[in-house]
Amino acid sequence: MRLMPRSTSARLALAVTASFLLAFVLLGIGVHYAVSAMLIQDARDLVRVDAAGLVEMYTDDGRSALLGELRDRIEADEDPDAVYAMTAPDGRVVAGNVALPRHHRGARWIEFTEHRADGDLRVVAQLQRLPDGTTLLTGTRTRSQDRFLGLMLRTALAALLVAATLGALIGWLTSRWVSHRLSHLDDTAGRVGSGEMALRARLDGSDDAFDRLARRFNAMLDRIQDLLDGVRHATDHIAHDLRTPLTRLRNRLEELRRREPGAESGAQLDAAIGETDQLLHSFGALLRLARIEAQSPVHDEPVLDLSDLARDAAELYTPIAAERGIALTADLPGPGAAAVRGDADQLFQMLVNLLDNAIKYAPADTEVALSVQRERHAIVLQIDDRGPGIPAADRERVFDRFARLEEHRGSPGTGLGMSLVRAILHRHGGHIALLDNAPGLRVRVSLSEAGG
What we know:
With 452 residues, the chain is α+β, with helices and mostly antiparallel strands. It is 55% helix and 17% strand. The chain has helices at 8-61, 63-76, 143-193, 209-259, 263-294, 306-323, 344-361, 417-427; strands spanning 82-87, 93-96, 109-116, 119-129, 135-141, 303-305, 327-331, 339-341, 367-374, 378-384, 431-436, 441-448. Strands 2-1-5-4-3 form a five-stranded antiparallel beta sheet. Helix 1 packs antiparallel against helix 3 (143-193). The longest helix has 54 residues, at 8-61. It is rod-shaped. The two termini are 37 Å apart.
């Protein structure tokens, strides 16, 4: 069981609160000790003056006068907190309103507790041995001092409660301030990760640790942007520069094919033309992929119905599937039930790529099922086939550019179809999962519902 919170902000708030309370408790203990010592010293000063007067009376007028004075004071009870006692040399109490403690061992100052019906009282007393062997105890009950210390303790406990509340509030405000300063970086990182590569963290000019971190974060994003732009431009230039000579090469092969109608040379020329078309198709896909990755997220794109796009894609591929002996079924909701925000052409491209893969690898006399449904403010597109499927270890790798599984390397394709799908979904804030359909593959695409 974890006792410490996981959140750094919560730990910071707890540390601030604990430090605040610890400082308050230490200060309270110090003040309580100082006040208590001061009150005891005042009580001793009072007792010392009183005892000096009694000793002086003993010196001037003798033992009998002192004994009479003690009895008069005890009977008058003018000071209810004053305590007196006189014991003979044999230990017998001659006069007094308090019982002497048994084990004082000749101490000059003693403190003991007097047990009374109205409660226990603390007594501070001075012991003096007179020349005739008599012992005089002069003291005072610390009733008022103890009441003051009790009031002080209750006040301190109330103040501790206030301090705990104030410390928790200060800790919470501190953690909120830190979280607020870091939230800008977190929001910027999230939006950049969603495709807003031009976005940068806001600077406040304070030059504190958070401001310096934001500057370093922006410098890192600038460097990443430069590297991505370099890769993208290199890809664009390669694709553009090679498409023209490849197109010329294809045209020359076509011309040569018309001039050489022979069966053997014609087959070789047809194969060369097919390879050239494949290269042109790959470069075209690379250019589309680069353009999609360079676009910002679809926050301002219009709302459209994904079920309409799925219906158009199903109509397009139903004849193709029928030619291969595959039944393409569609379970689509009514109009307006699958509203998403995005680019219609790109979402249709995604649907076409996924359906093309499903029909390409599904065996004859099987079914490919296309469905669209709404789940918790999300629109879920699902395509099920009964083909060979994709091993779990390779399901992430198929999204890499030019990635082809070993068993599919002889089949037509560029290896960029799933890369395009992932780029389109990334721009639309969607997610794709490749699951086992037992047998076959289940492709599950989730897009945020428009307005959800």
